[in-house]
Amino acid sequence: MTSINTKKRHPADVLLYIAIYICAAFSVALLLGIILYVLIKGIRSVSWDFLTGVTSVLKGTTGIAGNIVNTLYIIVVTMLIATPVGVGAAVYLNEYAKPGKLVSVIEFATETLAGIPSIIFGLFGMMFFGETLHLSYSLLTGSFTMVLMVLPLITRNTQEALKTVPDSYRQGAIGLGAGKWHMIRTILLPSAMPGIITGVTLAIGRIVGESAALLFTAGSTGLLPHSFTELLKKATQSGGTLTIQLYLSATKGEFGVAFGIALVLLVIVLGINFLTKALAKRFDVNRR
After folding, report:
1. What is the structure's pLDDT at 47?
2. Cβ partners under 8 Å of residue 48, min gap 6
3. How far is the C-alpha of 35 from the C-alpha of 197, rounded, in Å?
4. Of the four listed, 19, 60, 71, 140, which is most buried by Cβ atoms within 10 Å?
5. Exposed (0-12), middle (13-18) or buried (19+): which is 150, by Cβ within 10 Å?
6. Angstrom distance (rounded) from CA 219 to CA 190
């Protein structure tokens, strides 16, 4: 009896398999090539003083500690606002809202926001948050602008994650007498948690890699706060992220410093991806 495994493959299938493996190998080789190139070019610039110091013309030092703090500051503020709003919007659209024009309009608006170029978000953030709300160039202006950029990403990913939860989970919980919110909180959200974490991680990755919008809103200062009070005040002050400092260093011809920052960014992105995989595996209730 001929099975699928023992059946003779058609020459076209063999060529397709070869093409698929070549594409996969090319993708891996491209990633490794970029990592190795940045590593070779930037490893000489990365040192303890580079990571913990600040750039000073008077002292003749070069450091990115202030830019690292600014990047983390914007990530934390942005995600504290965008995550509950994005997840809440997805829960409403998927579990409470009835299919109709309102849902279609909201989904269309979300998809449109996700496709708008970041430079337009930067221009809007500069004029609305910076000029109208008088926040000027500050980390808050940059954070509020990034909220608008990553909100569609979190909402859509959470929606897709909720849709993957079988309807039998909902019916079983309701049949046992659980209320709708109790069912969402204890059944749906834990089941969709890997997808939600993926959406949040993609949003963080976009924040880390963004430069155009933040250059218009957050500014480019790389000062390092020396106390908790200064850290709190920094929200209303100008602050450049790692990507902004990379851009400024490249425009000045300081390519060693630029590649050093690029190496730090690569390490951060790789760390975020590994952390995401670990968290998604940890919260995947289907594996338990």
Report:
1. 87
2. none
3. 25
4. 71
5. buried
6. 39
- Name the residue with tokens 């070019």: 41
* Assigned token pair, 26: 């090319």
**Burial degree of 27 (CB within 10 A; 0-12, 13-18, 19+):** exposed
Q: Measured between alpha carbons, how far apart are the two ends of the chain, in Å?
A: 38
Maximum Cα interatomic distance, the chain, rounded to a whole number of Å: 82
Global pTM value:
0.86
Q: Determine the Cα angle at 105 with ends 103 and 111, to 5°.
A: 100
Residue 286: predicted pLDDT:
56
Give the tokens for residue 180: 């709708």
| Other CB atoms within 10 A of residue 209 CB | 14
Q: Are 126 and 217 in contact (CB under 8 A)?
A: yes
Q: Which of 36, 75, 79 is nearest to 210 (CA)?
A: 75
CB under 8 Å to 15, separation ≥6 — which residues?
A: none
Tell me which residue of 120, 70, 110 sits closest to 90, measured CA to CA: 110
Which portions of the chain are predicted below pLDDT 50?
Answer: 1
